[in-house]
Specification:
Two copies of one chain form a homodimer. The first copy, chain A, has a single domain, classed as Alpha/Beta hydrolase fold, catalytic domain (Rossmann fold, 3-Layer(aba) Sandwich). Chain A is built from ten helices and nine strands. Chain A is about 35% helix and about 25% strand. Chain A has a nine-stranded mixed sheet with strand order 1-2-3-5-4-6-7-8-9, with helices on both faces. Chains A and B meet through strand 1 and helix 10 of A and strand 1 and helix 10 of B.
């Protein structure tokens, strides 16, 4: 097992927030992640909730801005926030655009050059990172859920639907539910995945849900004043897809909220509550 | 009355968070501040709680990181967070050091050149800014309290003790309670105030409390793992000063916490609760 390096650590809500780096074999380079261990974790293994962040974010944004630690501390839940892509990969042009390359991994396993040697975020999220977390931290490895924001909201939905056995529940804030139908998704999928429609569809939340559904109700919050609502997020595509297969969905339009963490922090307690219910921490 | 410019606005916990700029006559230049208006403020005037930030901070840090909006929304409390100094003043060397000049106003009225023409933070905080806030926002102008962090914790204590009629209550996170006895304070007070000991003492929280006391109990939280505890913050100086005059003081050492916003967010609810009690929002 690889070593992980503690970059910094903070006491927070009686638990421990740590930022870590290590050499990721999947990403073929350094990866960073943040872990909040609730106070209960000093006594016994605890369930884990993964948060996948949006475009340009790092492993720290969620821990700084979302206000989730309060609730994780209350319920005894570990929080894990990975970075949104490998960094310092040496790939030419990796930092040239904010919506592809560094900070924009889109949670897919790239099949194309020059990305494929590092950008394997799907495998990283569903396999390597959980192995690291379950080895190095006091987790209940079979009690795991996932959620995220924007690109990470899409990532959480997609990872959960493709791996229903790994995640007890899923929720999202303002997710990119139909990446193959919006310019953000198209711009990233084409260089990462080539023009393989089958592969692209397997990474598209709205396509996926029609094929495989999900075993528990999906919670989504979406601000009505979100600047990306009609151009990129396309919530109606996912709502219609869920409707076709009668997928249980609690899709909440939140009047006047935008795409920011001020929206996320307002509803974070509801999302944590959704997950701790499925993780058996409350009735 | 001067115009204020809305820089950006976000819905948050059913209220409205705005970032503003305007020309400050006291500061002789642009100043920025943040205001969180709770949902109750659309119906009636509400009390105001000012938060003074620490060295290097701007008007946004508190609103991004402290998690206070949740509680302000619950109780019907307006939050105001000013910047920590004028910026873009044209003063030579203003940005050369992080602990004097830009981002380090220390909440004093500078008497010395080159600072005195812009760095009038004491008058700005106790006079000009409240006038702007009470004119432009739905406040109860006589229901005001103040708190802060580090340099701003000191600033809140000092402003409250020098103006007990303006502030119903005061609290602080890891305040610099004795600026005249630590290097941060000495380094700033000397160029801002010259070598006038009387003036310096009037800005020192531990000197002030012995002379004037305060009309309500002071709440202070201090992490025991704070990296600045013994070198700069000197809490025992303030505790001894309060002891001498039997000033009611709830000084809480919080085991294992450091100087960061992860410490502040952990205890923010207690501080808001302290203030809303004195502001008459709860019994």
């Amino acid at each position: 097992m690889t070593n992980i390096n503690l970059v910094s650590e903070y006491k927070c809500f009686d638990g421990k927030l740590g930022f870590y780096s290590y050499f990721s074999t999947t990403s073929n380079g350094e990866m960073r992640f943040a872990v909040y261990q609730p106070p209960q974790a000093t006594q016994k293994p605890v369930p884990v909730l993964y948060f996948l962040s949006g475009l340009t974010c790092r492993e720290d944004n969620f821990m700084i801005k979302a206000g989730a630690q309060k609730w994780a501390s209350k319920y005894g839940l570990m929080l894990v926030a990975p970075d949104t892509s490998p960094r310092n990969t040496g790939i030419a042009g990796k930092n040239d655009q904010w919506d592809i390359g560094t900070g924009a991994g889109f949670y897919v396993d790239a099949t194309e050059e020059p990305w494929r040697s590092h950008f394997q975020m799907y495998s990283y999220i569903i396999q390597e990172l959980p192995t690291v977390i379950n080895t190095k931290f006091p987790t209940e490895p079979n009690q795991t859920s996932i959620f995220g924001h924007s690109m990470g909201g899409y990532g959480g939905l997609m990872c959960a639907m493709r791996n229903p056995q790994l995640y007890k529940s899923v929720s999202a804030f303002a997710p990119i539910v139909a990446p193959i139908e919006c310019s953000w998704g198209q711009k990233a999928f084409s260089p990462y995945l080539g023009n393989n429609q089958k592969t692209s569809h397997e990474y598209d939340a709205s396509q996926l849900v029609q094929k495989v559904g999900y075993h528990s109700s999906i919670l989504i919050d979406q601000g009505t004043s979100d600047q990306f609502l009609t151009g990129q997020l396309l919530p109606n595509v996912f709502e219609q897809a869920c409707g076709k297969i009668k997928q249980p969905l609690n899709f909440r339009y939140q009047a006047g909220y935008d795409h920011s963490y001020y929206f996320i922090c307002t509803f974070i307690a509801d999302h944590i509550h959704h997950h701790v219910k499925y993780l058996g921490l409350i009735d």
